Amino acid sequence: SLHEDCFVFQYPIRPASMTYDDVTHLSAKIKPKQQKVELEMAIDTLNPNYCRSKGEQIALNVDGTCTDETSTYSSKLMDKQTFCSSQAASNVSRYAAAVYKKGELHLTPLHGILQLRPSFTYLDKADAKHREREAATEGGDSSQDEAEDDVKQITVRFSRPETEQARQRRVQSYEFLQKRQAEEQWVHLHYYGLKDSRSEHERQYLFSQGHGLAENTELIKSPSEYLMMLMPPSIEEENDKPVAPSNVLSMAQLRTLPLADQIKILMKNVKVMPFANLMSLLGSGTDSTAVLRCIQQVAMLVQGNWVVKSDVLYPKDTSSPHSGVPAEVLCRGRDFVMWKFTQDRWVVRKEVAAVTKLCPEDVKDFLEHMSVARINKGWEFMLPYDEDFVKKHPDIVQRQHMLWMGIQAKLEKVYSLLKEHLTPKKQETQSAHPLLVSGEQRVNMAKAKVKQNYGQLEKEFQKQKAEMKSSDTSAKTDTSHVRVKEEPVSDEEPMEASACQAMNNGLVNGLHAQEDSTDSLNGHLPGGCMDRVAQELKAFVSSTFKKQFVLTLSELKRLFNLHLASLPPGHTLFSGISDKMLQDMVLDTGCKQILVPFPPQTAASPDELKVYALWEAGDTYDQHRQVLLELFSKNYRVRRNVIQSQLSQECGEDLNKQEVDRVLKDCCVSYGGMWYLKGTVQS
User: Fold this and answer.
1) I need a labelling partner for 313 at 20 to 30 A (CA). Which of 12, 301, 393, 665 fits?
2) Domain count, the chain
3) Closest C-alpha to 396, from 385, 404, 408
4) Does residue 400 share a domain with residue 268?
5) CB neighbours (10 Å) of residue 341?
6) pLDDT in tens, 138-187
7) In this structure, what are the phi and psi dihedrals at residue 186, rounded to the nearest 5 degrees?
8) pLDDT digits (tens, 9 = 90+) for 592-634
9) What's the CA gap between 370 and 307, in Å, rounded?
10) How far apart are alpha carbons 61 and 597 in whole angstroms?
11) Based on the domain organization, do 37 and 96 belong to the same domain?
């Protein structure tokens, strides 16, 4: 009779000697649709193992000093604990509660099995109280000039009509399901003890009301027939194909799938794999011809290895988790990265981002699927060139080449690729395995490179020497000590290999590595050469400050080193640029040094203490930036409301939030609720 209402509750009872009769239930409530139960049980505060001071402290943290109806612990002592349920098994059709009486076994099917665990929501309440007290304390300490204006600008947006696809995604989302579960009302229950008369009455329903076997025709069977009825063979489960796990692969379960599904799941998880490794995972006896036929449906050949297709990773009607870009755009971007690796072992992330116009997170995901980052070089394809496969299967290689030609034609139309993107770079020996090179080996390789190119450098040096002799005008430049401080290249974007080789090609920031070649720098440089150097340096400084507006000398030198790395060998800027020349050029381009009053205990280097800012950019925000820079010449850090008040006072107009944000974005960064000039924040 109780098969619709019979549940099993499992929860811990402490101490272990305590029985069910000793538990004091204070209240209970249930959400019927979710089969979610909360039980509130008393804690024995008189037990010698109970820490009274700790109980008082928890009650004080949760409820504070005042006691009212909303208090969790009205006795100002943690004297109760809440248990919240979760389903222990999704399918309980084969479980039953059994009662044995007078030689009869009475079975009642279970409706659910719930495990109750301690709920710690009172800690969330304590945290909320703590945050309220902190907010009240901060609000009381703030001065009048830090108070925000009462009038605030608001933005009104009109929602677009929701499409059917968007509605389905919203209904299936985790937030929507959580909201629906939270909307279901609790039904409060009355708890009856074990020895209560109502409990005794309900417990009688556990016994079958029928008398004799006449009504139970199911029991008039042979033992084998009854066992077959009790545990029927699951025919549907035997015919159903096992569902592939979402993130963890069981090889035993995987091998029960069709070959095409096995290959698809393996490639989707591994993403890049040599054909030999794939055959070893599929088990002995697998036909390689069938595998080759299936692998071409879900993967493309790149440098002799198989890379999973983009449309397998990004199915139709999906989008990027980072930017929300639809799957079609993601597939095109990833195909471009795969195609670049068919041309070269190295790819530069900035080049991919510039062509595909995708966000950095999406581009990084593409590259991490099939390559590894190498400092100062770029992203290298993660597997060595598989010569064995290419030699054994030339027909497959030719077919894949034709497919890549078609993809290249499509990419040319979509991205309007330039000739430099289509021309493959000179590849290194493709069969070479990626090696970890020590620092000493790098130095030896650099020396060997210098010796290898010595002949070419000597010719260029003699040519430059001849030009110096024939020059009528000359400018003395003592560059024996000139050197722009080298900063480590940012890990965020490694430079291309060719750029690093250009810097190591016998020159370091324009200074020759050979001792006998320093005469050209310590001597006279042609006047035309100096003019070209000044023009190039001025163009770099001007374009940099128009983008950044505020820079420390340290950051400017780092950007200049990156700029040098992108230049071809023999460029005029390699003639040597000193710190003084760089600073003089900054002042000549209309910038000013901002004397920021750094704190006395600052650990910043001298180059980080020199701050330069573009004084006039020629736009409508020049006056606002100048007021802001004057403010930072008197203060190391400033609050936003002070900045807004000063701008309104000096510029004679009330600036809206967007205008203030624009000026702050040009010159400042926010940290800990305060605003600093760019590059001046000290950890």
Assistant:
1) 393
2) 3
3) 404
4) yes
5) 22
6) 765 554 544 555 677 788 877 778 788 888 888 888 888 888 878 888 88
7) -75, 140
8) 998 888 888 888 888 888 999 998 888 888 888 888 888 888 8
9) 7
10) 43
11) yes
The Cα angle at residue 147 between residues 142 and 153, in degrees rounded to 5: 150
**Residues 381 and 263 reside in one and the same domain:** yes
> Is residue 268 a part of any domain in this protein?
yes
Q: Which two tokens stand for residue 115?
A: 């495990």
Please give the structure tokens belonging to residue 604: 């910043």
Give me the domain span that covers residue 547: 529-677
Ramachandran area for residue 378 (φ above 0: left; ψ -120 to 50: alpha; else beta): left
Same domain, 534 and 615: yes
Domain boundary among 415, 447, 471: 415
242 pLDDT above the threshold of 70:
no
The amino acid occupying position 461 is F
C-alpha span between 202 and 188 (Å, rounded): 19
The answer to whether the beta carbons of residues 7 and 181 sit under 8 Å apart is no
Residue 374 belongs to what H/E stretch?
strand 371-374
Q: What one-character DSSP code corresponds to residue 637? A: S
Contact (CB, 8 A) for 576 and 521 = yes
- At 83-119, the pLDDT tens digits run 888 888 878 888 999 999 888 888 889 888 888 888 8
Structure token pair of residue 367: 């590259």
Within this chain, do residues 191 and 96 fall inside the same structural domain, yes or no? yes
Displacement of CA 263 from its chain's centroid (Å) = 28
d(CA 266, CA 275): 12
Domain membership of residue 143 (yes or no) is: no
Is 58 within 8 Å of 231 (Cβ atoms)?
A: no
Reported as half-sphere exposure (CB side, CA atoms, 13 A), residue 560 has a value of: 33
